[in-house]
Amino acid sequence: MDRQRKNVTIALLLLAATIALTAAVILTGGDDILVAVLLGLIAAELLVIGRITEARGDSALAPDDAESVNMDEDAVSR
To answer: Where are the bilayer-spanning segments (predicted)?
Structure first.
């Protein structure tokens, strides 16, 4: 697993945890300021994930092996 894919995986796990925390705060009737801060954090995490994948030039979540690329090209040529 290359470094960018690892970074995206970690960012997605952090995003999932932040979304769960935000949902818990909303369901328990948490303060509006806290909800706003958590929503801002979610937006920032999405931007980080976008920047990592943009820097790579393709999706950091796509498989890297040449075999899957060859299979995709075969499917397109049919």
So the answer is: 33-52
**Cα separation, 68 vs 61, whole angstroms:** 13
| Distance of alpha carbon 3 from alpha carbon 6, whole angstroms | 5
Average pLDDT, the chain: 81
* Whole-number pLDDT of residue 13: 94
Cα distances (angstroms) measured from residue 23 to each of 31, 61, 64:
12, 26, 34
* CA–CA gap between residue 29 and residue 37 (Å, rounded): 15
Q: Cβ contacts of residue 35 below 8 Å, gap of 6+?
A: 22, 25, 26
pTM: 0.66
